[in-house]
Amino acid sequence: MVGFGIMIPGNPFVLLFGIAGVLVLLRVLLSGTALLFVLKKWWSSIGDWFHVYQFYKVPEYNESFQENQLYRRVSTYVNSLASIEDSNFTNLFSAKKSNEILIHLDSNQTVHDTFLGARVSWTNEEKEERNSCRTFVLKVRKSDKRRILRPYLQHVHSVSDDIEQRGKEVKLYTNTETEHRNNGRWRSVPFTHPSTLDTVAMDSDLKNKVKSDLESFLKSKQYYHRLGRVWKRSYLLYGPSGTGKSSFVAAMAKFLCYDVYDVDLSKVSDDSDLKMLLLQMTNRSVIVVEDLDRFVSEKSTAVSLSGVLNFMDGIFSCCGEERVMVFTMNSKEHIDPAILRPGRIDVHIYFPLCDFSAFKTLANSYLGLKDHKLFPQVEEIFQTGAALSPAEIGEIMISNRGSPSRALKSVITALQTNGDGRGSGKIGRRLTESTSGRSVDESGDSSGVICRESVHTVREFRKLYGLLRMKSSRRGGTLDLGSVEKEG
Ligand SMILES: Nc1ncnc2c1ncn2[C@@H]1O[C@H](COP(=O)(O)OP(=O)(O)OP(=O)(O)O)[C@@H](O)[C@H]1O
Ligand SMILES: [Mg+2]
């Protein structure tokens, strides 16, 4: 009889070699199959039986609903780990550079990391419940925690700093409805508005003043702190529709390299909701409230006037630093004087309809024209008081960009038919004023924006623009050089 059996080699080395060979063969066969994944999971659970772990939570918001900066850093760090590719669920996004793909950890997924020989893991916890915020949970072996925790968190900090510096992308935040308040009220998209301070047509003196005002603001941390003031500055941009207010806000944010928070008052449920939104904004940001006059006069928001005033300079607005607040409106006429009272909004900038000088700037940028035989005719029409908004003129130029002569003729026709009288009295309004009690230039140089209290500066400025009569605006008590010119 011939028996079947497994031949066991007598030499132990041959035996070991054989076992190793079988394991390698198994590994090769199993790689890429679900079985390997299950085995790995078992192996890690067996490891977990032998260790005691410490868990650290990093929530997105702190108990006062302010953004936890560490959460943002951890998120940047975790999404940069190579091991994220081993996670079961990830989100893929196209990056700013068109051929780059970004991988982001999906909710409730875990990613592993090693540091100084210790193995740690991060889980991106996201609960379905209302009002619960997103949290990263760090898992560290108790035996490793004393040795690695501090240096590891420092490592997370410096890596995320590095990444953020390399690819700082300015973001535009918009507030969501109250019902969607999970994970905070702000949603962000990359801020890609094409406007810059160079592309906005406005009086070059005025533009330079605003530029130097912003520059001096950026350098004034110590100055504001010495005065016991919050390091923030507010601007009111007002003027007819299509004169470049929104474009200028975008240009300011780009110039400062700050994120933009665009507050939609129609989506704010009440005054305390507005405070909450303010608390959830980060530092180094431009906070914009567009069309404030409309919301206040039409009462198309649930926010009260006192809610708006508190937002501007109340105690809650002091919870952040290095912030620029910008309010836009079409006219100051129907606005409550409390909003315009001196000191409430630091700088007021008027955006006028197009005059001949602004027209030339637009013709240069839209049509590449420095001069043209039709320019004298255009100038003549402007002198009769005809005016259109830069948006209207820009539109005509864009649609006729193939033929500069046709574009200019169309502008002339539009000025003759639609622009009659709209521009009268506008020239003197291309001014800025400050109600903060300080010249914009912190060195005390009065060449900056006008201060309400600094009467000499105001007079000099008025002389400069040929405005000899001075009058306070009817209700606000704020200097409004534009209305003087208009009425005078
Ligand atoms: N001063 C300007 N210089 C260059 N382009 C301008 C200027 N004003 C307006 N435009 C162009 O017109 C369009 C509309 O401008 P924008 O939205 O900034 O006006 P606005 O003052 O905010 O108007 P509204 O009061 O209706 O919100 C933009 O595409 C912008 O490029
Ligand atoms: Mg606008």
Q: What's the helix and strand layout?
A:
Blueprint: H1 12-30, H2 34-50, E1 53-59, H3 69-80, E2 90-94, E3 101-105, E4 110-115, E5 118-125, E6 135-141, H4 142-166, E7 171-175, E8 186-190, H5 204-218, H6 221-227, E9 232-238, H7 245-256, E10 259-262, H8 271-279, E11 285-289, H9 292-298, H10 305-313, E12 323-329, H11 337-340, E13 347-350, H12 356-367, H13 375-383, H14 390-399, H15 404-418, E14 432-434, E15 450-451, H16 455-464, H17 481-487
Parallel strand pairs: 7-10, 9-12, 9-13, 10-11, 11-12, 14-15
Antiparallel strand pairs: 1-6, 2-3, 4-5, 5-6, 7-8, 13-14
The structure holds adenosine-5'-triphosphate and magnesium ion (MG).
Residues 200-202, 241-247, 330, 351, 390-391, 394 line the site of adenosine-5'-triphosphate.
Low-confidence stretches: 1-5, 424-488
The beta-strand count equals: 15
CATH fold category name of the largest domain: Rossmann fold
- Enumerate the strands of the largest sheet in spatial order, edge to edge or round the barrel: 8-7-10-11-12-9-13-14-15
Bound molecules: adenosine-5'-triphosphate, magnesium ion
Oligomer: single chain
Q: Give the CATH level 1 class of the largest domain.
A: Alpha Beta
Q: How many distinct helices?
A: 17
Tally of domains = 3
From the alpha carbons, calculate the radius of gyration and give it in angstroms: 31 Å
- Principal-axes geometry comes out as elongated
Which class best fits the helix and strand makeup? alpha/beta
Proportion of β residues? 15-25%
Sketch the major β-sheet.
9 strands, mixed
Averaged pLDDT, please?
Answer: 79
Intertermini distance = 127 Å
The CATH architecture of the largest domain would be 3-Layer(aba) Sandwich
Helix content: 40-55%
